[in-house]
Recover the amino acids of this structure.
DNA sequence: GAGCACGCTAAGCGAGCGCTCACCTTCGGC
DNA sequence: GCCGAAGGTGAGCGCTCGCTTAGCGTGCTC
Protein backbone atom coordinates (compact mmCIF):
# COMPACT_ATOMS: atom_id res chain seq x y z
CA UNK A 1 0.00 0.00 0.00
CA UNK A 2 3.06 2.17 -0.16
CA UNK A 3 3.47 5.12 -2.47
CA UNK A 4 5.41 3.17 -5.08
CA UNK A 5 2.50 0.87 -5.74
CA UNK A 6 -0.01 3.67 -6.05
CA UNK A 7 2.19 5.80 -8.30
CA UNK A 8 2.86 2.88 -10.59
CA UNK A 9 -0.70 2.33 -11.73
CA UNK A 10 -1.97 0.48 -8.70
CA UNK A 11 -5.36 1.08 -7.26
CA UNK A 12 -5.43 4.48 -5.55
CA UNK A 13 -7.74 3.03 -2.88
CA UNK A 14 -6.62 -0.57 -2.66
CA UNK A 15 -8.52 -3.15 -0.65
CA UNK A 16 -11.24 -0.58 0.02
CA UNK A 17 -13.80 -3.39 0.11
CA UNK A 18 -12.16 -4.95 3.17
CA UNK A 19 -13.68 -3.74 6.43
CA UNK A 20 -13.29 -2.97 9.24
CA UNK A 21 -10.11 -0.94 9.16
CA UNK A 22 -8.13 -3.34 11.36
CA UNK A 23 -8.99 -6.26 9.07
CA UNK A 24 -7.76 -4.29 6.08
CA UNK A 25 -4.50 -3.35 7.79
CA UNK A 26 -3.89 -7.01 8.57
CA UNK A 27 -4.65 -8.02 5.01
CA UNK A 28 -2.34 -5.41 3.53
CA UNK A 29 0.40 -6.52 5.92
CA UNK A 30 -0.17 -10.11 4.84
CA UNK A 31 0.10 -9.20 1.15
CA UNK A 32 3.45 -7.55 1.75
CA UNK A 33 4.78 -10.41 3.85
CA UNK A 34 3.56 -13.15 1.49
CA UNK A 35 5.05 -11.33 -1.50
CA UNK A 36 8.41 -10.91 0.19
CA UNK A 37 8.91 -14.31 1.78
CA UNK A 38 6.17 -16.56 0.44
CA UNK A 39 3.13 -17.87 2.30
CA UNK A 40 4.80 -20.73 4.14
CA UNK A 41 7.79 -18.67 5.25
CA UNK A 42 5.56 -15.95 6.68
CA UNK A 43 4.54 -16.19 10.33
CA UNK A 44 1.34 -14.91 11.83
CA UNK A 45 3.50 -12.95 14.27
CA UNK A 46 5.13 -11.18 11.33
CA UNK A 47 1.79 -10.24 9.79
CA UNK A 48 0.39 -8.94 13.07
CA UNK A 49 3.61 -7.06 13.77
CA UNK A 50 3.52 -5.26 10.42
CA UNK A 51 -0.05 -4.22 11.17
CA UNK A 52 1.00 -2.94 14.61
CA UNK A 53 -0.97 -5.53 16.51
CA UNK A 54 -0.42 -8.52 18.74
CA UNK A 55 -0.42 -12.01 17.19
CA UNK A 56 -3.76 -12.82 18.74
CA UNK A 57 -5.51 -9.90 17.05
CA UNK A 58 -5.26 -11.67 13.70
CA UNK A 59 -7.69 -14.34 14.84
CA UNK A 60 -10.41 -11.85 15.70
CA UNK A 61 -10.78 -11.00 12.00
CA UNK A 62 -9.65 -14.20 10.29
CA UNK A 63 -10.19 -17.80 11.26
CA UNK A 64 -6.81 -19.00 10.00
CA UNK A 65 -3.73 -17.79 8.16
CA UNK A 66 -5.01 -19.57 5.08
CA UNK A 67 -8.23 -17.55 5.13
CA UNK A 68 -6.09 -14.43 4.71
CA UNK A 69 -4.47 -15.89 1.60
CA UNK A 70 -7.83 -17.00 0.28
CA UNK A 71 -9.33 -13.52 0.66
CA UNK A 72 -6.31 -11.89 -0.98
CA UNK A 73 -6.37 -14.34 -3.84
CA UNK A 74 -10.09 -13.97 -4.53
CA UNK A 75 -10.10 -10.19 -4.45
CA UNK A 76 -7.00 -10.09 -6.63
CA UNK A 77 -8.41 -12.45 -9.21
CA UNK A 78 -11.66 -10.53 -9.33
CA UNK A 79 -9.71 -7.34 -9.94
CA UNK A 80 -7.68 -8.99 -12.72
CA UNK A 81 -10.84 -10.32 -14.31
CA UNK A 82 -12.46 -6.91 -14.15
CA UNK A 83 -9.47 -5.34 -15.91
CA UNK A 84 -9.64 -7.84 -18.75
CA UNK A 85 -13.44 -7.62 -19.03
CA UNK A 86 -13.29 -3.85 -19.35
CA UNK A 87 -10.79 -4.16 -22.18
CA UNK A 88 -12.54 -7.07 -23.91
CA UNK A 89 -16.00 -5.48 -23.96
CA UNK A 90 -15.20 -1.96 -25.01
CA UNK A 91 -15.75 -0.61 -28.50
CA UNK A 92 -13.13 -1.18 -31.16
CA UNK A 93 -11.35 -3.74 -33.30
CA UNK A 94 -9.88 -6.95 -31.91
CA UNK A 95 -6.45 -5.37 -32.31
CA UNK A 96 -7.43 -2.38 -30.20
CA UNK A 97 -9.08 -4.50 -27.55
CA UNK A 98 -6.15 -6.92 -27.34
CA UNK A 99 -3.74 -4.00 -27.04
CA UNK A 100 -5.84 -2.55 -24.26
CA UNK A 101 -6.20 -5.89 -22.48
CA UNK A 102 -2.50 -6.74 -22.55
CA UNK A 103 -1.21 -3.31 -21.65
CA UNK A 104 -3.60 -2.83 -18.74
CA UNK A 105 -3.14 -6.40 -17.50
CA UNK A 106 0.64 -5.98 -17.60
CA UNK A 107 0.45 -2.60 -15.89
CA UNK A 108 -1.48 -4.24 -13.08
CA UNK A 109 1.08 -7.02 -12.70
CA UNK A 110 4.02 -4.61 -12.79
CA UNK A 111 2.61 -1.74 -10.75
CA UNK A 112 0.91 -3.95 -8.19
CA UNK A 113 3.66 -6.50 -8.26
CA UNK A 114 3.34 -7.12 -4.53
CA UNK A 115 -0.27 -8.16 -4.84
CA UNK A 116 0.15 -9.88 -8.20
CA UNK A 117 2.93 -12.07 -6.87
CA UNK A 118 0.75 -13.43 -4.12
CA UNK A 119 -2.23 -13.84 -6.40
CA UNK A 120 -0.34 -15.64 -9.16
CA UNK A 121 2.25 -17.67 -7.30
CA UNK A 122 0.72 -18.77 -4.00
CA UNK A 123 -2.20 -20.68 -5.48
CA UNK A 124 -0.78 -24.04 -4.41
CA UNK A 125 -0.71 -22.97 -0.79
CA UNK A 126 -4.51 -22.91 -0.68
CA UNK A 127 -6.56 -25.91 0.40
CA UNK A 128 -8.53 -27.92 -2.18
CA UNK A 129 -11.82 -26.02 -1.85
CA UNK A 130 -10.32 -22.56 -1.99
CA UNK A 131 -8.05 -23.55 -4.86
CA UNK A 132 -11.00 -24.88 -6.86
CA UNK A 133 -12.83 -21.59 -6.39
CA UNK A 134 -9.83 -19.59 -7.60
CA UNK A 135 -9.26 -21.91 -10.56
CA UNK A 136 -12.81 -21.18 -11.70
CA UNK A 137 -11.96 -17.47 -11.75
CA UNK A 138 -8.82 -18.24 -13.76
CA UNK A 139 -10.88 -20.03 -16.39
CA UNK A 140 -12.96 -16.87 -16.76
CA UNK A 141 -9.77 -14.86 -17.19
CA UNK A 142 -8.61 -17.25 -19.90
CA UNK A 143 -11.98 -17.06 -21.64
CA UNK A 144 -11.86 -13.27 -21.92
CA UNK A 145 -8.50 -13.28 -23.68
CA UNK A 146 -9.41 -16.26 -25.83
CA UNK A 147 -12.58 -14.46 -26.88
CA UNK A 148 -10.66 -11.49 -28.26
CA UNK A 149 -8.20 -13.70 -30.12
CA UNK A 150 -10.99 -15.87 -31.55
CA UNK A 151 -12.82 -12.83 -32.87
CA UNK A 152 -9.68 -11.42 -34.42
CA UNK A 153 -8.92 -14.75 -36.04
CA UNK A 154 -12.48 -15.18 -37.33
CA UNK A 155 -12.54 -11.72 -38.88
CA UNK A 156 -9.17 -12.23 -40.53
CA UNK A 157 -7.68 -9.45 -38.44
CA UNK A 158 -5.29 -11.93 -36.80
CA UNK A 159 -3.41 -14.90 -38.18
CA UNK A 160 -3.35 -17.59 -35.49
CA UNK A 161 -2.70 -21.31 -35.91
CA UNK A 162 -3.51 -22.46 -32.37
CA UNK A 163 -5.97 -20.22 -30.51
CA UNK A 164 -5.85 -22.05 -27.18
CA UNK A 165 -2.08 -22.32 -27.23
CA UNK A 166 -1.62 -18.70 -28.18
CA UNK A 167 -4.04 -17.59 -25.45
CA UNK A 168 -2.07 -19.61 -22.94
CA UNK A 169 1.18 -18.03 -24.09
CA UNK A 170 -0.21 -14.48 -23.97
CA UNK A 171 -1.52 -14.92 -20.44
CA UNK A 172 1.66 -16.67 -19.37
CA UNK A 173 3.75 -13.80 -20.69
CA UNK A 174 1.69 -11.23 -18.80
CA UNK A 175 1.54 -13.17 -15.55
CA UNK A 176 5.28 -13.79 -15.45
CA UNK A 177 5.80 -10.03 -15.28
CA UNK A 178 4.97 -10.32 -11.58
CA UNK A 179 7.99 -12.63 -11.14
CA UNK A 180 10.69 -10.49 -12.74
CA UNK A 181 9.46 -6.90 -12.59
CA UNK A 182 11.52 -4.68 -10.34
CA UNK A 183 10.15 -1.35 -9.15
CA UNK A 184 13.68 0.04 -8.99
CA UNK A 185 14.52 -1.29 -12.46
CA UNK A 186 14.88 0.68 -15.68
CA UNK A 187 11.31 0.23 -16.97
CA UNK A 188 8.03 1.72 -15.81
CA UNK A 189 4.89 -0.41 -15.79
CA UNK A 190 3.58 1.72 -18.67
CA UNK A 191 6.65 1.00 -20.78
CA UNK A 192 6.44 -2.72 -20.18
CA UNK A 193 2.72 -2.63 -20.96
CA UNK A 194 3.35 -0.93 -24.29
CA UNK A 195 6.24 -3.25 -25.18
CA UNK A 196 4.22 -6.34 -24.34
CA UNK A 197 1.15 -5.15 -26.24
CA UNK A 198 3.35 -4.81 -29.32
CA UNK A 199 4.89 -8.25 -28.82
CA UNK A 200 1.48 -9.86 -28.38
CA UNK A 201 0.13 -8.25 -31.54
CA UNK A 202 3.07 -9.79 -33.35
CA UNK A 203 2.33 -13.17 -31.77
CA UNK A 204 -1.23 -13.15 -33.10
CA UNK A 205 -0.10 -11.94 -36.51
CA UNK A 206 -2.06 -8.69 -36.36
CA UNK A 207 -2.06 -7.02 -39.74
CA UNK A 208 -1.36 -3.45 -38.64
CA UNK A 209 2.36 -2.72 -38.63
CA UNK A 210 3.02 -2.56 -34.95
CA UNK A 211 6.62 -3.40 -35.72
CA UNK A 212 7.31 0.17 -36.71
CA UNK A 213 5.40 2.28 -34.27
CA UNK B 1 13.65 -39.32 -12.16
CA UNK B 2 10.40 -41.10 -12.92
CA UNK B 3 9.48 -42.45 -16.34
CA UNK B 4 7.36 -39.45 -17.30
CA UNK B 5 10.26 -37.08 -16.96
CA UNK B 6 12.62 -39.26 -18.99
CA UNK B 7 10.12 -39.93 -21.76
CA UNK B 8 9.31 -36.29 -22.10
CA UNK B 9 12.74 -35.11 -23.13
CA UNK B 10 14.35 -35.06 -19.72
CA UNK B 11 17.84 -36.24 -19.12
CA UNK B 12 17.96 -40.04 -19.44
CA UNK B 13 20.58 -40.12 -16.66
CA UNK B 14 19.60 -37.17 -14.49
CA UNK B 15 21.78 -35.97 -11.64
CA UNK B 16 24.48 -38.43 -12.68
CA UNK B 17 27.10 -35.99 -11.43
CA UNK B 18 25.87 -36.30 -7.87
CA UNK B 19 27.68 -38.95 -5.88
CA UNK B 20 27.59 -41.09 -3.84
CA UNK B 21 24.35 -42.88 -4.58
CA UNK B 22 22.71 -42.00 -1.26
CA UNK B 23 23.40 -38.32 -1.79
CA UNK B 24 21.80 -38.51 -5.24
CA UNK B 25 18.72 -40.28 -3.91
CA UNK B 26 18.30 -37.57 -1.29
CA UNK B 27 18.71 -34.84 -3.88
CA UNK B 28 16.17 -36.40 -6.23
CA UNK B 29 13.74 -36.76 -3.33
CA UNK B 30 14.29 -33.10 -2.46
CA UNK B 31 13.59 -32.00 -6.06
CA UNK B 32 10.28 -33.84 -6.02
CA UNK B 33 9.28 -32.50 -2.63
CA UNK B 34 10.32 -28.90 -3.35
CA UNK B 35 8.46 -28.97 -6.68
CA UNK B 36 5.28 -30.31 -5.08
CA UNK B 37 5.05 -28.22 -1.93
CA UNK B 38 7.70 -25.53 -2.21
CA UNK B 39 10.95 -25.26 -0.29
CA UNK B 40 9.59 -23.83 2.95
CA UNK B 41 6.69 -26.25 3.15
CA UNK B 42 8.97 -29.25 2.71
CA UNK B 43 10.40 -30.87 5.85
CA UNK B 44 13.72 -32.65 6.10
CA UNK B 45 11.77 -35.64 7.41
CA UNK B 46 9.77 -35.70 4.18
CA UNK B 47 12.88 -35.62 2.01
CA UNK B 48 14.60 -38.36 3.98
CA UNK B 49 11.42 -40.45 3.97
CA UNK B 50 11.10 -40.27 0.18
CA UNK B 51 14.69 -41.43 -0.11
CA UNK B 52 13.99 -44.31 2.27
CA UNK B 53 16.22 -43.00 5.01
CA UNK B 54 16.01 -41.59 8.51
CA UNK B 55 15.95 -37.80 8.96
CA UNK B 56 19.50 -37.78 10.31
CA UNK B 57 20.94 -39.38 7.16
CA UNK B 58 20.38 -36.15 5.28
CA UNK B 59 23.00 -34.36 7.36
CA UNK B 60 25.72 -36.83 6.50
CA UNK B 61 25.65 -35.69 2.87
CA UNK B 62 24.42 -32.09 3.20
CA UNK B 63 25.17 -29.50 5.81
CA UNK B 64 21.72 -27.93 5.75
CA UNK B 65 18.42 -28.12 3.91
CA UNK B 66 19.41 -24.97 2.06
CA UNK B 67 22.55 -26.63 0.71
CA UNK B 68 20.30 -29.15 -1.01
CA UNK B 69 18.38 -26.36 -2.72
CA UNK B 70 21.61 -24.61 -3.65
CA UNK B 71 23.04 -27.73 -5.29
CA UNK B 72 19.81 -28.39 -7.18
CA UNK B 73 19.63 -24.82 -8.35
CA UNK B 74 23.23 -24.65 -9.54
CA UNK B 75 23.15 -27.94 -11.42
CA UNK B 76 19.81 -27.01 -12.98
CA UNK B 77 21.00 -23.60 -14.12
CA UNK B 78 24.18 -25.10 -15.56
CA UNK B 79 22.06 -27.57 -17.51
CA UNK B 80 19.78 -24.79 -18.79
CA UNK B 81 22.78 -22.71 -19.81
CA UNK B 82 24.32 -25.68 -21.62
CA UNK B 83 21.09 -26.21 -23.59
CA UNK B 84 21.02 -22.59 -24.74
CA UNK B 85 24.77 -22.51 -25.51
CA UNK B 86 24.46 -25.59 -27.71
CA UNK B 87 21.67 -23.93 -29.68
CA UNK B 88 23.30 -20.50 -29.83
CA UNK B 89 26.69 -21.72 -31.07
CA UNK B 90 25.66 -24.20 -33.70
CA UNK B 91 25.79 -23.53 -37.43
CA UNK B 92 22.89 -21.76 -39.08
CA UNK B 93 20.99 -18.51 -39.39
CA UNK B 94 19.77 -16.54 -36.39
CA UNK B 95 16.28 -17.78 -37.17
CA UNK B 96 17.38 -21.40 -37.04
CA UNK B 97 19.38 -20.92 -33.86
CA UNK B 98 16.58 -19.04 -32.10
CA UNK B 99 14.12 -21.77 -33.10
CA UNK B 100 16.47 -24.38 -31.72
CA UNK B 101 17.14 -22.45 -28.53
CA UNK B 102 13.48 -21.79 -27.72
CA UNK B 103 12.19 -25.25 -28.60
CA UNK B 104 14.88 -27.09 -26.62
CA UNK B 105 14.66 -24.67 -23.70
CA UNK B 106 10.89 -25.09 -23.58
CA UNK B 107 11.17 -28.88 -23.89
CA UNK B 108 13.44 -28.87 -20.88
CA UNK B 109 11.03 -26.74 -18.84
CA UNK B 110 8.03 -28.85 -19.81
CA UNK B 111 9.58 -32.32 -19.73
CA UNK B 112 11.61 -31.70 -16.61
CA UNK B 113 8.95 -29.56 -15.04
CA UNK B 114 9.68 -30.94 -11.60
CA UNK B 115 13.27 -29.79 -11.72
CA UNK B 116 12.55 -26.60 -13.63
CA UNK B 117 9.99 -25.49 -11.07
CA UNK B 118 12.49 -25.67 -8.27
CA UNK B 119 15.22 -24.06 -10.33
CA UNK B 120 13.09 -21.15 -11.53
CA UNK B 121 10.79 -20.45 -8.62
CA UNK B 122 12.67 -21.17 -5.40
CA UNK B 123 15.47 -18.68 -6.00
CA UNK B 124 14.29 -16.39 -3.20
CA UNK B 125 14.59 -19.20 -0.68
CA UNK B 126 18.36 -19.17 -1.04
CA UNK B 127 20.60 -17.08 1.19
CA UNK B 128 22.34 -13.96 -0.19
CA UNK B 129 25.60 -15.66 -1.24
CA UNK B 130 23.99 -18.60 -2.98
CA UNK B 131 21.45 -16.34 -4.64
CA UNK B 132 24.20 -14.10 -5.99
CA UNK B 133 25.97 -17.09 -7.50
CA UNK B 134 22.81 -18.27 -9.22
CA UNK B 135 21.98 -14.78 -10.47
CA UNK B 136 25.37 -14.71 -12.21
CA UNK B 137 24.40 -17.88 -14.07
CA UNK B 138 21.09 -16.29 -15.04
CA UNK B 139 22.89 -13.33 -16.58
CA UNK B 140 24.83 -15.78 -18.74
CA UNK B 141 21.55 -17.38 -19.79
CA UNK B 142 20.17 -13.98 -20.73
CA UNK B 143 23.33 -13.14 -22.68
CA UNK B 144 23.05 -16.24 -24.86
CA UNK B 145 19.52 -15.43 -25.97
CA UNK B 146 20.26 -11.73 -26.37
CA UNK B 147 23.24 -12.63 -28.55
CA UNK B 148 21.09 -14.52 -31.03
CA UNK B 149 18.51 -11.75 -31.18
CA UNK B 150 21.18 -9.06 -31.61
CA UNK B 151 22.77 -10.92 -34.49
CA UNK B 152 19.44 -11.43 -36.19
CA UNK B 153 18.60 -7.76 -35.74
CA UNK B 154 21.99 -6.63 -37.02
CA UNK B 155 21.77 -8.78 -40.14
CA UNK B 156 18.26 -7.61 -40.90
CA UNK B 157 16.93 -11.10 -40.39
CA UNK B 158 14.82 -9.91 -37.45
CA UNK B 159 12.89 -6.71 -36.85
CA UNK B 160 13.21 -5.80 -33.19
CA UNK B 161 12.65 -2.43 -31.55
CA UNK B 162 13.88 -3.25 -28.05
CA UNK B 163 16.45 -6.04 -27.90
CA UNK B 164 16.76 -6.20 -24.12
CA UNK B 165 13.02 -6.05 -23.59
CA UNK B 166 12.34 -8.68 -26.22
CA UNK B 167 15.02 -10.96 -24.76
CA UNK B 168 13.41 -10.57 -21.36
CA UNK B 169 10.01 -11.45 -22.78
CA UNK B 170 11.28 -14.49 -24.67
CA UNK B 171 13.00 -15.91 -21.60
CA UNK B 172 10.00 -15.06 -19.43
CA UNK B 173 7.69 -16.91 -21.80
CA UNK B 174 9.87 -20.02 -21.76
CA UNK B 175 10.44 -20.03 -18.01
CA UNK B 176 6.76 -19.66 -17.19
CA UNK B 177 6.14 -22.99 -18.92
CA UNK B 178 7.39 -24.61 -15.73
CA UNK B 179 4.51 -22.97 -13.84
CA UNK B 180 1.60 -24.06 -15.99
CA UNK B 181 2.73 -27.16 -17.86
CA UNK B 182 0.85 -30.29 -16.86
CA UNK B 183 2.24 -33.70 -17.73
CA UNK B 184 -1.30 -35.09 -17.91
CA UNK B 185 -2.49 -32.19 -20.09
CA UNK B 186 -3.25 -32.23 -23.79
CA UNK B 187 0.16 -31.07 -25.04
CA UNK B 188 3.50 -32.84 -25.19
CA UNK B 189 6.70 -30.92 -24.44
CA UNK B 190 7.62 -31.22 -28.12
CA UNK B 191 4.34 -29.61 -29.20
CA UNK B 192 4.74 -26.74 -26.78
CA UNK B 193 8.34 -26.29 -27.91
CA UNK B 194 7.29 -26.05 -31.55
CA UNK B 195 4.39 -23.69 -30.78
CA UNK B 196 6.60 -21.42 -28.70
CA UNK B 197 9.39 -21.37 -31.27
CA UNK B 198 6.85 -20.12 -33.82
CA UNK B 199 5.48 -17.50 -31.44
CA UNK B 200 8.97 -16.24 -30.62
CA UNK B 201 9.91 -15.93 -34.29
CA UNK B 202 6.83 -13.76 -34.69
CA UNK B 203 7.85 -11.67 -31.68
CA UNK B 204 11.24 -10.89 -33.21
CA UNK B 205 9.69 -10.21 -36.62
CA UNK B 206 11.56 -13.00 -38.38
CA UNK B 207 11.14 -12.63 -42.10
CA UNK B 208 10.44 -16.28 -42.95
CA UNK B 209 6.71 -16.97 -42.93
CA UNK B 210 6.44 -19.06 -39.83
CA UNK B 211 2.81 -18.06 -39.65
CA UNK B 212 1.89 -20.57 -42.30
CA UNK B 213 4.06 -23.58 -41.62
C1' DG C 1 40.41 -61.53 12.82
C1' DA C 2 41.18 -57.15 15.27
C1' DG C 3 40.76 -52.38 14.26
C1' DC C 4 38.51 -48.88 12.30
C1' DA C 5 36.37 -45.64 9.06
C1' DC C 6 32.02 -45.00 7.14
C1' DG C 7 27.00 -44.77 6.59
C1' DC C 8 23.23 -44.93 9.04
C1' DT C 9 19.59 -44.91 12.95
C1' DA C 10 16.91 -43.84 17.39
C1' DA C 11 16.16 -40.47 20.32
C1' DG C 12 15.71 -36.01 21.38
C1' DC C 13 17.09 -30.78 21.97
C1' DG C 14 15.90 -25.92 21.68
C1' DA C 15 13.26 -22.98 19.05
C1' DG C 16 9.52 -21.22 16.78
C1' DC C 17 5.20 -22.33 14.76
C1' DG C 18 -0.30 -21.67 14.37
C1' DC C 19 -3.54 -20.84 17.34
C1' DT C 20 -6.29 -20.30 22.04
C1' DC C 21 -7.76 -18.46 26.35
C1' DA C 22 -8.56 -15.50 30.24
C1' DC C 23 -8.78 -11.03 30.88
C1' DC C 24 -8.70 -5.95 29.94
C1' DT C 25 -10.13 -1.63 27.65
C1' DT C 26 -13.23 1.51 25.23
C1' DC C 27 -17.60 3.26 24.12
C1' DG C 28 -22.59 3.92 22.66
C1' DG C 29 -27.36 3.27 24.70
C1' DC C 30 -30.38 4.22 28.34
C1' DG D 1 -23.23 5.89 35.91
C1' DC D 2 -23.88 1.12 34.70
C1' DC D 3 -23.66 -2.58 31.11
C1' DG D 4 -22.72 -5.46 27.40
C1' DA D 5 -20.67 -5.94 22.96
C1' DA D 6 -16.65 -5.29 20.11
C1' DG D 7 -11.89 -5.30 19.65
C1' DG D 8 -7.75 -5.81 21.73
C1' DT D 9 -3.62 -7.97 24.81
C1' DG D 10 -0.07 -11.25 27.39
C1' DA D 11 0.85 -15.61 28.26
C1' DG D 12 1.28 -19.92 26.81
C1' DC D 13 -0.32 -24.77 24.88
C1' DG D 14 0.70 -28.56 21.92
C1' DC D 15 3.17 -29.55 18.13
C1' DT D 16 6.56 -29.86 14.56
C1' DC D 17 10.50 -27.89 12.77
C1' DG D 18 15.82 -28.10 11.47
C1' DC D 19 19.39 -30.15 13.28
C1' DT D 20 22.58 -32.95 16.78
C1' DT D 21 24.43 -36.68 19.29
C1' DA D 22 25.50 -41.34 20.93
C1' DG D 23 25.87 -45.58 19.35
C1' DC D 24 25.31 -49.64 16.00
C1' DG D 25 26.30 -52.65 11.95
C1' DT D 26 29.06 -53.57 7.98
C1' DG D 27 32.95 -54.33 5.13
C1' DC D 28 37.79 -53.09 3.95
C1' DT D 29 42.76 -53.21 5.58
C1' DC D 30 46.63 -55.47 6.99
Amino acid sequence: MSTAEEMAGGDPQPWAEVTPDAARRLLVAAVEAFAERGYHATTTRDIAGRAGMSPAALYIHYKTKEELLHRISRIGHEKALEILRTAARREGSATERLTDAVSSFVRWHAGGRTTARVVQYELDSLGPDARAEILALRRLVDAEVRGIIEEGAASGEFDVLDVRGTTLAVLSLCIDVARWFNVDGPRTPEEVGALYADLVLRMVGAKSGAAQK
User: Anything to note?
Assistant: The two ends of chain B are 35 Å apart (CA to CA). The domain at 3-203 of chain B is CATH 1.10.357.10 (Tetracycline Repressor; domain 2). DSSP finds eleven helices and no strands in chain B. The mean pLDDT of chain B is 91.
